[in-house]
Amino acid sequence: MEEHEGGLKETWRARIRTDYRLALVTLFMVCTIAAILPFAVYRFAVGEILVGIVDMLIVSAMVAAMIFAWRTGRSELAGILGSAISSFMSIFVVYVIDLSHLWAFAALVANFLLAPRLFALGAGLIVLASIGFAPGAFDDALERTTFLGVGAMVSIFSLVFASLIDMQSGQLARQARRDPLTGVGNRRAMEEELTAFARGTAAAADTRFGLVLLDLDHFKRINDDHGHEAGDRVLKDFTTILSDTLRRGDLVYRYGGEEFVVVLPGLGPDDLGIVLEKLQSAIRESLRGPAGAITASMGAARFRAGEDWRVALADADKALYDAKRVRNCWRVAN
Q1: Cα distance between residue 329 and residue 320, in whole Å
Q2: What is the tens place of the pLDDT at every residue in 22-65?
Q3: Residue 254, class by beta-carbon neighbours within 10 Å (0-12 exposed, 13-18 middle, 19+ buried)?
Q4: What gap in Å lies between CA 35 and CA 38, rounded to an integer?
Q5: Given 36, 231, 326, 327, which residue has the most CB atoms within 10 angstroms?
């Protein structure tokens, strides 16, 4: 039981760290629920039933959106809902409860942090127009103009800030999916993309794939005899050869050490051997180290979109084990 709870806690932390929009949605909705719920209780206590019901509907919508985001991972859609609710709430308190229009500034900031830019702009314009031209919301024209001007400034600053966050988050996400030495996808990227294939979300159900596991022969000798810098140069050259030899849509990942995985989408039933032979020849002819030519051994397997790629990887690993007993050759799993 304790291990299960610890695993859930770690999963929760990992999702918060890797999905910043989910973190923002969760933080915003928790704070909003904590802020509105006491007011809802108060409204019911003093007999303002209609306003209390609206407050409880807002709280319920926030809870539902947060649960939806965590269960489905669609944090952007949950953010849109949160943005719509906050915009509605800022207008509602002015027209129905006759409270301060200053709540609108919090809604404007929330819109750009939670929702996509176009939606946030549209929601912000609706909030500013609805409150800025609300009858009786301001004492005079100067106060109304000041509200509209400050609201526009808040929107612009929020747009710039949210855009910078999106850009930096995207850069960090790309870096987290790349091997820093070779620049190809890392193991995390491989698992995410192959899982997408297995779910059938990234390709048609009848798409065939080839999965190739490659291992450089006697690579340890290079590191031992010539140093890790020489080994790093060989790995970089190796990935360059793979990129130059493979098709544009083929995927390359560094699996670990000197092992790499190549995924070949849209492969015909008789094409795998042709690709393997082409790779073998390119590596044999072009890859060089301090002591001369370097070769590679390969194991391959086939799978279809919708099938478990882990089975294909295990089959390719067995085929690679057979190839490594001979070296400088390839084998295909039955």
Answers
A1: 9
A2: 888 888 888 888 988 998 899 899 988 888 888 888 889 888 88
A3: buried
A4: 7
A5: 231
Q: Above 80 in pLDDT, residue 14?
A: no
The model carries a pTM of 0.62
Per-residue pLDDT, 3: 44
- Cβ-contact 263, 250 below 8 angstroms: yes
**Residue 99 confidence (pLDDT) above 70:** no
Contact 286, 241 (CB under 8 A): yes
CA atoms within 13 A on the CB side of 5: 2
Give the HSE-up count for residue 287: Cα atoms under 13 Å, Cβ half-sphere. Answer: 29
Q: Tell me, rounded to whole angstroms, the distance of Cα 256 from its chain centroid.
A: 22
Given a cut of 90, whether residue 285 has pLDDT beyond it is yes
* DSSP letter string, 284-310: HHH-EETTEE--EEEEEEEEETTS-HH
Cβ–Cβ under 8 Å, residues 222 and 289: yes
Residues 166 and 147: their CA atoms lie apart, in Å, by 28
Question: What is the C-alpha separation between 298 and 165, in angstroms, rounded?
Answer: 42
332: amino acid identity, one letter? V
Q: Indicate whether 239 pLDDT > 70.
A: yes
| Higher-pLDDT residue of 99, 139 | 139
The DSSP bridge partners found for residue 58 are none
The residue-averaged pLDDT of 300-311 equals 88
213 contacts: CB under 8 Å, gap ≥ 6: 255, 259, 260, 261, 298, 299, 300, 313, 316, 317, 319, 320
What per-residue string of b and e applies to 205-242 under the rule 16 or more CB within 10 Å gives b? eebbbbbbbbbbbebeebbeeeeeeebeebbebbbebb
Contact 134, 143 (CB under 8 A): no
Give me the percent of the chain exceeding a pLDDT of 90: 41
E-only strand ranges, the chain: 208-216, 251-256, 259-265, 288-289, 292-293, 296-304, 330-332
